[in-house]
Amino acid sequence: MFNFDAKTSVLFGFNTIKELGPEAIKLGAKNVLVVTDKGIVQAGLLEKVKESLNASGINVAVFDGIEPNPSDKSLVVGGQAARDHQADMIIGLGGGSPMDAAKGIAIMTNNDGTVESYVEVLDAWPNTPLPVICIPTTAGTGAEVSRAAMVNLTEKKIKKALFGATIQPQLAVVDPSLTLGLPSHLTAQTGVDALCHAFEAYIAKFSNPISDALAVEAIKLAAANLREAVKHGDNLEARSNMLLASTIAVISASSAGLGVVHSLAQTLGGFYNLPHGLSIAVCFPYGIGYNLVAEPEKCAHVSRMLGTDTSNMSDEEAANSVVAALRTLNADLEIHDDLRSLGFQEADLPVLAKYSVEDGNTPTNPRVFDVDAATTLYQSMLN
Ligand SMILES: [Fe+2]
User: Distance from the CA of 262 to the center of ligand 1, in angstroms?
Assistant: First the structure.
């Protein structure tokens, strides 16, 4: 038995941003708060959103103070901004951070508790959050279709998840034209995150025939388009296919779950305040290397999809070859993965290992993951 649920309506295609206003009206919006960050404003993307909303007669307020790893404090401030505007909808515009923050702000607009009191428990908040529309500007997080929102608990230096069906976006407006200006290093990091969602979902504990079909499609799209999107950011087809891969991967992962690559990476990201995609790229070969024994056939299949010729390999060699394929991908994309220069040090290992095992993605990993395993993996990253 398995359950597959995809609640978010997806509007995909070039210039679909123009449909945002009419779609928001259909969902009952009159006063919306757009949650974004300063980079998105500078890139001129907020203007496109405002244009469409204003043309439909919707009153727009903007909260553009979201950090790269959104903090609990920002969600509280954003919730107040939404109440001041009498908002009836939150729109998240940007990469994973503003979209996750939009979901958190939707909760905090209608609830008085602390952010920390709501993490890691399904729909933990007493009052229903405001409805959310998400508009991704990177091809990576898939936050536009997920029921989770990461938040950095600033004082504890740890990232935790808010999750539940009530914060899953009602609508995702997925417009590849919004990703055209993304710099190549961010295209690389976020693209690897998209591939990782698909790969982890493919081998996760609750993977099922529907999530597998989606994961395989997302892996094929990323394998065929990620290098090209990084190299030639103006290639419309590559951009479009990467954004499609990103969205599909998280529809798969919402059903199947993720695994220890995310457990390890989110711990590093929260502790050292690293971009999510970068910490994923660093941990990707190690976490998958750990999981090979649990799903060797699927790992070999991914390796072939990434371009490895496994015809002369034993089954074990074919499975193992996916680790090399992931390392080659990082190198081709010029992702800087020297952990020491990113702040990682031995003295932090015990707390990092503990946090990663406690991460919300650990329970859906296909192989048991404990503090000893986490310590060994982090040590091998340092060496
Ligand atoms: Fe991710």
Answer: 6
What are 57-97's pLDDT values in tens digits?
999 999 999 998 899 999 999 999 999 999 999 999 999 99
Residue whose entry in the numeric block shows the structure tokens 């390890």: 264
Nearest to 105 by CA among 144, 73, 75, 68: 75
As assigned by CATH, the class of the 184-382 domain is mainly alpha
64 CA to centre of ligand 1 in angstroms: 22
Q: Average pLDDT of 226-246? A: 98
Span 171-216, pLDDT tens digits? 999 999 999 999 999 999 999 999 999 999 999 999 999 999 999 9
Distance of CA 190 from the midpoint of ligand 1 (Å): 8
Would you say 110 and 75 are in contact if contact means Cβ atoms under 8 Å apart?
no
Measured in Å, residue 277 CA sits from the centre of ligand 1 at 7
Q: How far is the CA of 144 from the centre of ligand 1 (A)?
A: 12
Return the percentage of the chain with pLDDT > 90, whole number: 91
How many angstroms separate the alpha carbon of residue 61 from the centre of ligand 1?
A: 29
Q: Which CATH number fits domain 9-179: 3.40.50.1970, 3.40.50.1980, 3.40.190.10, 3.30.465.60?
A: 3.40.50.1970
pLDDT at residue 383, as a whole number: 82
Residues ≥6 apart with Cβ < 8 Å to 330 = 192, 281, 284, 285, 337
In this structure, are residues 144 and 120 in contact, taking their beta carbons and an 8 Å threshold? no
**Ligand 1 center to 55 CA (angstroms):** 34
Q: How far is the CA of 109 from the centre of ligand 1 (A)?
A: 26
Q: 56 C-alpha vs ligand 1 centroid, how far in Å?
A: 34
Which residues of the chain form CATH 3.40.50.1970? 9-179
C-alpha 151 to ligand 1 mean position (Å): 13
| DSSP letter, residue 362 | G
**How many A from CA of 217 to the centre of ligand 1?**
17
Measured between alpha carbons, how far is 209 from 4 in angstroms, rounded to an integer? 10
